[in-house]
Structures are given as structure tokens and as C-alpha cells.
Amino acid sequence: VQLQASGGGLVQPGGSLQLSCAASGDIFTIVAMGWYRQAPGKQRELVAAITKRGEIPYAESVKGRFTISRPAADTLHLQMNSLKVEDTAVYYCTVTTIHENDYWGQGTQVTVSS
Q1: Confidence of residue 109 (pLDDT cuts 50, 70, 90)
Q2: pLDDT at residue 103, rounded to an integer
Q3: Which of 6, 9, 35, 40 is the most exposed, fewest CB within 10 Å of its CB?
């Protein structure tokens, strides 16, 4: 499975961005998809995911502001509203397959700054 993330950029605090992740390859083996982020000097953290059980966990810091969706088998979105400076990070798309393999995209930079 190959992943291509897009939609990052520079936005002012309070603004919005939508990240997209396009999957290709054996997409019908995908059982879970999610977004992680890594800020400078910090560990990579889960932002939101759609698990194989259909659960949708969110990081506490983004609840009520971010929405994850999977409109198609090969597409994952992350709608980010009311962005804060602390949301600045590289955002990564990841999937887990039925074979329990994890794949990662290349990351897309989100910068929230005035």
C-alpha cells in the first residue's frame, strides 16, 4: 500500500485546513486508517483514527475541532477547524492492513502562525 498525503500549509490561528490521504495498491486489505503528527522536539502522537472495529478515537487536544472521515476505500480526510499554534506539526497518514502491516505516508507540514 502506498500513501500520499496532501493539504498542509500555512494558516492563521482560528483557521481551517483539510488534509487528504490517497491510498493506492492493495487498498482492500486496509482495515484501519489514521492520522498522526509530530511537532519539533516531540514524539509522534495519534491525532485521530478509524479502527477496524469502526471506533474513531481522537486526541484530547483536537476533540471538537478535528474530524476524520473515510469517504472512499482509498481516501482519508482530516478536517481541521479552529486551528491553534500548538497544532503545528508534520501530519502523517497511516494504514493497517488485514495482514497487520502498517504503512506510512511521507507527511505534510501544517503550520499555524499569525
Answers
A1: very high
A2: 96
A3: 40
